[in-house]
Amino acid sequence: MADHVNRAKRSLIMAAVHSRDTMPEIAVRKIVHSLGYRYRLHDSRLPGRPDLVFPSRRKVVFVHGCFWHRHAQCKYASSPKTRVAYWQAKFFANVARDRRTRRELKNLGWTQMTVWQCELKKPEKLTERLDDFLAD
Ligand SMILES: [Zn+2]
Q1: 5, 71, 122, 123: which could form a disulfide with 66 (CB 3.0–4.6 Å)?
Q2: Which residues have CB under 8 Å from 2's CB, separation 6+?
Q3: pLDDT tens, 12-35?
Q4: In this structure, is residue 2 part of a structural domain?
Q5: In angstroms, what is the span from residue 114 Cα to ligand 1's centroid?
Q6: What does the alpha-carbon distance between residue 124 and residue 130 come to, in Å, rounded to a whole number?
Q7: What is the CA(126)–ligand 1 centre distance, in A?
Q8: How confident is the model at residue 1 (pLDDT cuts 50, 70, 90)?
Q9: Ligand 1 centre distance from Cα of residue 17 (Å)
Q10: What's the CATH code of the domain at 84?
Q11: How far is the CA of 79 from the centre of ligand 1 (A)?
């Protein structure tokens, strides 16, 4: 995907992506709430500060932006055509951090699910997936 967005605009997008309560995250919260599950938000006592935490089930859900977290084979995980080395280093660090977080949570006995931002395009399917994950 071509990099049509200029640098100033991109930094605005990044700021939005990095904000604490991103739109995809709010959408996922709504789905989970509609399914009747209770959760905590951003528990900083856990590795990776998971977006939604279900303490009694020992489960967490991460809501990941496809661009930042490099969703494999996803059209939203485009690569900027400028400052290539900078972005590659950044992406590499993000992916490595996610991997470390997953391992740490697993070692602590937590089960986890990642919701990708693009999955919100098919809310019914995502709702089913979340319900399956949280149900047992
Ligand atoms: Zn995606």
Answers
A1: 71
A2: 81
A3: 555 555 555 678 999 999 999 999
A4: no
A5: 11
A6: 10
A7: 13
A8: very low
A9: 14
A10: 3.40.960.10
A11: 13
Task: Note the pLDDT tens digit of each residue in 78-94.
Answer: 999 999 999 999 999 99
104-122 in b/e form (b: 16+ CB < 10 A) is ebeeeebebbbbbbbbbee
How far apart are alpha carbons 25 and 13 in whole angstroms?
16
Q: Does 33 map to a domain? A: yes
Whole-number Å distance, alpha carbon 1 to ligand 1 midpoint, is 14
- Find the 56 Cα to ligand 1 centroid distance in Å: 29
| Ligand 1 center to 115 CA (angstroms) | 9
Residues with CB under 5 A from ligand 1 (ion): 66, 71, 74, 76, 116, 118
Element holding 133 (H helix, E strand): helix 123-135
1 domain-assigned:
no
**If you measure from the C-alpha of residue 123 to the centroid of ligand 1, how many angstroms do you get, rounded to a whole number?**
14
pTM: 0.82
Task: Report how many domains make up the chain.
Answer: 1
